Amino acid sequence: MIKCIATDMDGTLLTATQQITVENREAILKAKEKGVEVVVATGRSFQEARFVLEESGLKLPMICVNGAEVRSGDGEIVASNPLDKALARQAALRLVESGVYFEVYTNKGTFTEDEDKAISIIVDIFSTANPEVPIEKIAEAAEERLHKGLITKIEQYDQLFKDDQYEIYKLLAFSLDDDKLGVARNGLKEITRLAISSSGSENIEITSLDAQKGIALEKFVSSKGITMEETMALGDNFNDVSMLERVGRPVAMGNAAPEIIALCGEVTVTNEESGVGKAIMKALED
After folding, report:
1. What is the pTM of this model?
2. Average pLDDT of the chain?
3. What are phi and psi of 9, to 5 degrees?
4. Can you give the residue ranges of every domain in the chain?
5. In terms of DSSP bridges, do strands 109-112 and 101-106 run parallel, antiparallel, or are they unpaired?
6. Burial of 74 by CB count in 10 Å (0-12 exposed, 13-18 middle, 19+ buried)?
7. Distance between CA atoms of 166 and 199, rounded to whole angstroms?
8. What Pfam families would the database entry show (predicted)?
9. Which candidate in 8, 10, 236, 240 is catalytic?
10. What is 4-81+212-285's CATH topology?
11. pLDDT level of residue 265 (50, 70, 90 thresholds)
12. Parallel, antiparallel, or unpaired for β 69-71 and 77-80?
């Protein structure tokens, strides 16, 4: 019997326009009514993840920034696994040398050195991945990150590396240029003690080795007296692998990367078709 359900957000729980469908919401509430723990496991910061959940009236514990931070349903920090700042600075240098845009996720929010790039590159990536969605809607969602304070402009990232009040959770790099991303990945591999993954073909996610969804999920379920065998996880991309490999019931989205589908014993429909909600209802009925 499934006692815990962990779901990724982008490409999984959310549609291309960053919405949680009614079917997904109702299935989550149904699971909670039956006493099943439901936790979000996302590469997003707490601020960005909470914003979407609150819009849907959902209050869930969250594994944020790929496991760099764990929050209770009330938003309290339960655990954190920041990057060593010397390693973070080395990784940032590799990205700068590769000419790849990146953002820095911290315990005090997400930062960018270039607001225009922060909007334009997200629009380019989302419109390429979701050509059926009007570009105006994608641009609106991208601009909302800045207007609602979900990402903050900073003059230089080095301020974050030098100031002790900031813990560095993740560097998130974006590019539609495969060659640049390849150069960046090769440079990052030279740095030991980094976890390097991605939530899409156009990005690189850099965290501490201990900041992985699967590690954080294992600790979360253990604290609830639940085993990983009694846990279901849903995901669509490579930053979900660490949890999909560990749970008793791994479920791939219909829109997942082929490697993710091959890894899982079960495949649901796409994120646009409420695949999470359908998988949850199936699990509750089994």
Report:
1. 0.87
2. 92
3. -105, -75
4. 4-81+212-285, 85-208
5. antiparallel
6. exposed
7. 24
8. Hydrolase_3
9. 8
10. Rossmann fold (3.40.50)
11. confident
12. antiparallel
> What CATH number should be reported for the domain whose range is 85-208?
3.30.1240.10
Q: What pLDDT does 39 receive?
A: 98
Buried/exposed code over 173-184 (b: 16+ C-beta within 10 A; e: otherwise): bbbeeeebbebb
Q: What is the pLDDT of residue 48?
A: 86
Q: Residue 147: is its pLDDT beyond 90?
A: no
Q: What is the pLDDT of residue 122?
A: 73
β-sheet bridge partners, residue 202: none
Distance CA 172, CA 239 (A): 12
C-beta atoms surrounding 89 within 10 Å: 16
What single string gives the DSSP state of each residue in 50-86?
HHHHHHTT----EEEGGGTEEE-TTS-EEEE-PBPHH
CB distance 71 to 46 below 8 Å: yes
The more confidently predicted of residues 129 and 202 is 202
Handedness of CA 28, 150, 71, 267 (dihedral sign): positive
Instruction: Using the predicted structure, report yes or no on whether residue 16 has a pLDDT greater than 90.
Output: no
- Please tell me the predicted confidence (pLDDT) of residue 134: 79
